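Hi again,

Forgot to attach this to my earlier email, sorry! This is the prediction with magnesium ion bound. I've pasted everything inline since the attachment limit keeps bouncing my files.
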Amino acid sequence: MNLAIETKDLTKTYKTSSGPQSVVKNLDLQVERGEIFGFLGPNGAGKTTTIKILLGIIDSTSGEASVLGNPAGDIESHKKLSYLPEKPYYYEHMTGVEIMQFYASLFGIKDRDLCERLLNRVNLGNDMNRPISQYSKGMQQRIGLAQSLLNDPELLFLDEPTGGLDPIAHIEIRDLILKFRDEGRTVFISSHELSDVERICDRVAIINKGELVHQGRLDQLLSGGRIEITADNLTEDVANKFRGDDFTVSFKNGRLIADIPDSAHPGEMLDAIRAANGDIVSVIPRRKRLEDLFLESVAGDNVLKGRKMSKMTDDHNAAEAVEVAKEEGAN
Amino acid sequence: MGAILSIAKTTIGEAIRRRVLLVILLVGVLFLVIAPGLSVLSLRQNYTVLTSFTLGVIQLTSAVIAIVLTVYLLPNEVERRTIYTILSKPVYRWHFLLGKYLGAVGALGMMMLLMSTVLVLVFRIMQQQASMDDVLQLATAPIFFFVQMSLLAAVAMFFSTFVSPIVNFFLSGGVYLVGTLFSPVFQDLSNNQTLPAAVKGAATVIHSIVPNFAQYNIQGGIINQGPELRSIELYYVQIVVYALFYIAAFLIAGMMIFDRKEV
Ligand SMILES: Nc1ncnc2c1ncn2[C@@H]1O[C@H](COP(=O)(O)OP(=O)(O)OP(=O)(O)O)[C@@H](O)[C@H]1O
Ligand SMILES: [Mg+2]
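Structure tokens for the complex follow:
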């Protein structure tokens, strides 16, 4: 039993005024011990709902969920895990160290030193005697992380830990999370910050409308990159040869910009451009970004499709601008 | 146990800072202080008038505080998501509910203690002729109000596991009114042999579900004594045991509902 979290066919259906609504559908997740697992999905995809089920705060409608080898919600597991909810709130009349002592007491821990050590660890050592009402968002998020370490957990659930933070607070928290992994903890993190996720997560799952779309190692999911070819002095009919599924092609004033999957035999394309006496300006291999994968995963949505296209075009315009600038610089 | 007490302590700390409660408390204290002046106006200015007026103020103020305090305890925790952090610790839901309840009772006790102190002071100053014994006698009344309010808080706690605060406010208030004003009536009805069985049955049901709040209204030792009453001490013990029984029943019912509730 080496999985920290495992769900099988996990389903949650809410009864709403417009009939039953499944917000988590047949979810199969496997989170390995000692990894940072990114749990992604658009707003309302069912991430928080899933986390609440895993913590036993709400019950699933059907399916199974086990956490640290016990059924979800088991109090024994709760001694070894911790949870930082999205947009957490702390009793404002208490000071930082009082809040820590309060949470510690829920584990039966009476160690004030430990509370202070953890506050120091998240850089709140100097503010520990100030009431929480005076804490900034970033400080509140840091005290949230500090309280989540009280029981030296094996598994941490962090629901949008960097939501609404400035870039510096952001980086601090990201670094803390990386250290958690170094300490051998498993981190289950839900986030909209794809660049963070890309930087720190070992594996990710992407869900959309309650359904699992992708799950796997980040490096594997992001392999199969794309190549962007830019060439000048071509005619429209040469450019038309490059149209195809999953190709993004623009042609203007003899300039072709083609964004193609690297599985699409780029060599043949380059040959075709040379054969038509075109000038190859640049060939840029691009690793797939998590953002691309994410947008792909939720692309059922028309709005998103539109956004994806326009974004691609923007990118090309930007690339064009750079090329023009280079040429001008050369002249 | 430690978790329950911590939750209670935190609840007290928060409750005694809640502005609404402090305002209600302030109004109560204000009425206590000006009570002697008011009783001068009511020509029959005497000890009894002052007693029933001030005790009435304490009772009413405490009841409003008990309800307003308790109906928001659980919903606020859910709304602010503090409950999620707590329930993700090794804390059972019944721990949480019990801790919240004990906190409510603790905060209520502190506020009632303040009012009772003001009450005693007012009598010491305004009724110089009253002996210390009289005043102590007077102070037993708030003690039983406290038992009464603890019971009321348990009722409100129970309702808060499944209705919204506003609905709860009227429900608990209603139960309190019925239990205070009509309990003796229902008791009589259920004991009346001449009534049809259906009416008697209904009266018995209501009488056993709605707690008898009336029995805690003890004014300077004067109570509605039944024939079976042997001593006042026995009566006190009886009504406290009665309260504990009902508190336990309401809390356990509340815990059972809360345990299945999606928060
Ligand atoms: N108690 C409830 N009753 C009915 N529907 C609910 C309830 N709680 C959540 N939902 C619905 O479930 C869906 C998933 O919500 P959830 O909070 O899990 O999304 P999320 O992925 O965490 O989104 P976000 O990124 O915005 O935090 C939403 O459509 C939400 O409206
Ligand atoms: Mg969420």
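The CA atoms of residues 111 and 180 of chain A lie 21 Å apart. The interface with chain B takes residues 52, 55-59, 75-76, 78-79, 81-91, 93-94, 102-103, 105-108, 147, 151, 157 of chain A (CB under 8 Å).

That should be everything now.

G.
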